[in-house]
Request: fold
Amino acid sequence: MILLYHHVKPEVDDEISISLEKFTKHMLSLQDKTVVYLEDYNPSDANQVVITFDDGYKSVLTYAAPILKHFGYPFELFLVKDFYDKAQQGDEFFLNENDLKSLMKIGGRLQYHTKSHPHLEEISDYKKLEEEIAAPDYMKNLDKSGFEWFAYPFCTYNDMVIEVVKKYYKGARTGKWLDGGTIYTLGSVFVKDDTILSEELSFDEQVCDLCTKLFHSKKIKEFFKYLFYKLMFFVSFGEKKEYFRAKYKEAKKRTETY
Ligand SMILES: [Zn+2]
Reply:
């Protein structure tokens, strides 16, 4: 089974988000499964699960990462070039290079999800399709073991799209369960907040404890960082003072997110 997530947030306010509590419950319910990368995935093995996130949203780092790290699950991040570029220019909605590095440290692998997130089946020009589907080198350099798998935006494709994808990738994921059934049309479960995985129901009580524990400890860590930077700000001069001012303000902002 391949699970497809987008956002994980404390409060669900759209169709592509799942609540932090629900996500924790899903992760708890996977403890008896074998969570693998796409590379090692055998679709006919009912015990295997692949966790994937599409589009590269910052909420994956903020909310999903502490839980993934706790369980030590590997996971795949399908990135869109234009969204990544925005993040590099300061857009806080998407994951930037540093965020991706932090996620890779805890088991994240980077894969591709097009240049601009278009409806690929509507593009009839072969060259344009290639431009959308082939990942640029500066992104590929971020993860030497990544960018070998592809995910179709909106889960739509046609024969020509698959032909181009085959040129650049080992396989591709769609968003529908039992879709296609080949390595280039791997089906997945598009997880929404009301998606119930079997086995998850027995975790209602554990989930609250774990959420509180994980996020409480992260908040405390961030708070100590804030205190440290603020202290350094008071005792330093000149350029260093400005550096620590920026640092403690950033840390303060982070404590407020939890
Ligand atoms: Zn997408």
